[in-house]
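Purpose: get a first structural picture of the assembly so the mutagenesis plan has something to point at.
Setup: six entries, given in the order below. No constraints added.
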Amino acid sequence: MIYITRRERFNSAHKLFREDWSDEQNLEVFGKCSNPNWHGHNYELYVTVKGEVNPKTGFVIDLKELKRIITSQVTDKLDHKNVNLDVDFMAGKMASTEVLAMEIYNQLKPHIEACGAQLDKIKLCETENNFVEYYGS
Amino acid sequence: MIYITRRERFNSAHKLFREDWSDEQNLEVFGKCSNPNWHGHNYELYVTVKGEVNPKTGFVIDLKELKRIITSQVTDKLDHKNVNLDVDFMAGKMASTEVLAMEIYNQLKPHIEACGAQLDKIKLCETENNFVEYYGS
Amino acid sequence: MIYITRRERFNSAHKLFREDWSDEQNLEVFGKCSNPNWHGHNYELYVTVKGEVNPKTGFVIDLKELKRIITSQVTDKLDHKNVNLDVDFMAGKMASTEVLAMEIYNQLKPHIEACGAQLDKIKLCETENNFVEYYGS
Amino acid sequence: MIYITRRERFNSAHKLFREDWSDEQNLEVFGKCSNPNWHGHNYELYVTVKGEVNPKTGFVIDLKELKRIITSQVTDKLDHKNVNLDVDFMAGKMASTEVLAMEIYNQLKPHIEACGAQLDKIKLCETENNFVEYYGS
Amino acid sequence: MIYITRRERFNSAHKLFREDWSDEQNLEVFGKCSNPNWHGHNYELYVTVKGEVNPKTGFVIDLKELKRIITSQVTDKLDHKNVNLDVDFMAGKMASTEVLAMEIYNQLKPHIEACGAQLDKIKLCETENNFVEYYGS
Amino acid sequence: MIYITRRERFNSAHKLFREDWSDEQNLEVFGKCSNPNWHGHNYELYVTVKGEVNPKTGFVIDLKELKRIITSQVTDKLDHKNVNLDVDFMAGKMASTEVLAMEIYNQLKPHIEACGAQLDKIKLCETENNFVEYYGS
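Result (structure tokens, whole complex):
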């Protein structure tokens, strides 16, 4: 068993905000992250796939294929978009790094398994000072 | 003459968009950067100050003082904000990296000169792949 | 279960040195790290916390709270200090990266558990070329 | 149990290519990585060792010794070399990141165990966008 | 006048080698960089363009256009290639970082001027420890 | 004219402190940087040399020779040392980044000129957030 990781990036707007709370409640819990006019990030996404090495190619998975999956299922939907407003798989969900990482995992898992590999981990970096890791439920 | 640089960071939403153009015109010129619902970045700001070294302290400028100026004049106004909507010194201006760097320079210059030093350069990084440098007009 | 990591930094002096050994013995075992007049590092500390996502906030732990704990319990005591001489929780211990990482883990664990989360891992980077990871005993 | 990691680097040429396939087949499977005249990378190698901390030294393993092992067994053989043509332990093998990581693991394991520690993991980065991790079979 | 920089990357094989010298002479002058079977690097290329800001767009140059120029004139010719053997504009030249940076500058200059901007600088990084900068002759 | 830069690193202890001031005065001016028991940094040093390219080698300067000069004149004296106490060329001087950069410049200049090249710039990074640049007087 060996693990291979591909990094992709996307630049998005978001806010941490509950519609069912007042602005004051949102500010109290989410601080400056609740700014009504949004803020944004250069997100870095690391997708780790595990499997056996194919003896013919020396590959766990063809990285061109992995990149194609990540782009079509995830980064094309998020890059230069608003996480709260523009992204189908985030509709009605909190736009925290934790929830975004979990939903990205769910988006990618069936497509990676269809290639004969396993999705091991999503790592999602919001800033140079914080990131989230998710291995599935 | 010696040069000292301080890095600060801010996370903001923006879009490249002219109100006097249609969405189609904006899309044609600004591409995905014109997304009506915004996108965002982790900006990195490098402020370079030049001057003579004070023989008593070995300093060109006290970095604590430089940090205080950058924070109060620039990053407190930009961090977790919308560059187009929330920032007084960007009102009515294009939110491109070029224009933002020039306006940050104009915000900082008088305050740094009041400390007896000179503002040499603003470097503003929008992503790991592009940045702008401005030395004043 | 999801994992969230916060990075903090501190700049400290230290040496690898046993008082019960001669300078020659210290030099033989610890090399240049035993310099009697100290040397120092820009340490990078990554604190990883695990838990369930709170469905109301989308958070495992409030990062502002995690930062407050790390600052008060660890980095305020280490930053711009001497690891061997100035730090209460390192008194009488070897100032190696391994031991420092373990003692930082012990400092943080009860405070993170008091927030309803679990401390998963401490990663402590001494230089760009070496780091230590500790998951508790 | 604690984990310590040492980073080393090497700059090598390679290609992904099977001699028993035509150039067209190689191009179809390996794309631009099959360029007959080679290409190359600045590889980053992270070697993670685990063990108990020696109470006398505060060390899991002496990093000078770990560096000596990695240099003599791995990086001296790979740095400024051709992975396909010049490296004894890669002879007749695919020069993919996966296979290279596995063979580096096999090179290092007995030498690290001879120091009384255990080899936990090899992480091998080919570019800033992809890396492989191997924990042994 | 304002400066904007775009980063691109390419992974290439090369050697430092004079055909009119013996292997021994090459080894004496170029050391391990003269390995007959090549070695390689992940090169990072920074292209800096200067000009006035267009008041309509807030741009010095459209970065999509700059990327198109760099890709077609430079990185498509170098990426996953052999600098000594495969690159038209390097034929018969030493494949040092200095010469490569100068020739990249010469490739880009007319195309950037055709966009109404000026090429200020090429910065070419061969490893994390060395890079070359060229401003034209 | 072309510019080539070599990066080297050193890990040192220092403090900002005037013996002719009280501890209170030192604390007021230098803050936590005046900690009597020292603190330390992983310094990064960038040495930029300029000159004409030698048409035989494609080099401005042989980087192995540049590394030899930096190591013997600067980093061997600073690495794993105390800047205030252990470094001949800093004796009696303030151990600020500004002064250290200027003195490193003075150490290197004659040795680089003896190689037929010119020293252009010293860049000295103290943390990821601040650095100094010096071009000579």
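The mean pLDDT of chain C is 97.
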